[in-house]
Write a structure and sequence with these properties.
This protein is α/β, with parallel strands linked by helices. It has 9 helices and 8 strands. It binds adenosine-5'-triphosphate and magnesium ion. Magnesium ion binds next to loops.
Amino acid sequence: MGQDSPSKRRYSLIPTSHPRAISLLIREKLVHGFDDGLVAKEGLIAHGRGETFDYLLGEKTTKNAKKAIKAAALALILAKSPVISVNGNIAALCAKEIVLLARIVDAKIEVNLFYSDKKRKQYIARLLKKNGVKEILGLDPRPSRRIAGLDSPRRVVDKDGIYAADVVLVPLEDGDRTLALKKAGKKVITFDLNPLSRTAQTADITIVDNVVRGLHSLIKECKNSKNQKIQFDNKKNLSEAINEIKKNLARRARHA
Ligand code: ATP
Ligand code: MG
């Protein structure tokens, strides 16, 4: 892992005419991320869980995801110290978009891994830098702090990053960490294709969408947002996401 140069040119073996080309291309990106030392083995499995829910949701940005994206854009724009937490999957899938979003909403970027690994952090930081980030938090030897209620080393966060943040975007997060961030008083925004996950249920704003699709919409929304107050109820929105799956399944069952 990590021996191959991340800049090595690769050619996709997936024909664009394949009916599941987009999904397969995203999967391929993640596999390349693994080969480049960015993604943990467990990250590949987590992606598989996401793919399942994407399938059930119809692989589209739903109406309720759009609603959550609007709420997330507003929260990020109004935040005093927003931070975007980046893990291996996010770096492999959307490094460029993360950097662009951070620039638009003036957010800091912190590398924070569930399976902490110094080398992997360095590979992720290198990729983010290649995409134009100057300051990356969460790396040694930056000052760190601990968030309560979690086992080490997952509880270690950057003193000037997540620790000091009022709003944290944690795409593809684990439930325990989401809960700990909530308990630490943060407003938590997440992308999670599984509306039933603990992360989805615990966050303040859950965008039930593939982060690869949803991040583009979030960037657009942040650029265009007119700071209009909107009514947003995460629980209600999650139940709409669950109903979307139910509706899709009922339709498929009728035509099976
Ligand atoms: P939780 O810990 O929140 O209960 P979990 O243990 O089921 O969730 P994790 O492995 O901790 O799952 O987190 C990964 C989450 O990210 C999963 O819910 C998965 O559906 C979601 N996911 C994976 N890939 C994507 C993606 N590309 N876009 C959005 N969500 C994704
Ligand atoms: Mg989990």
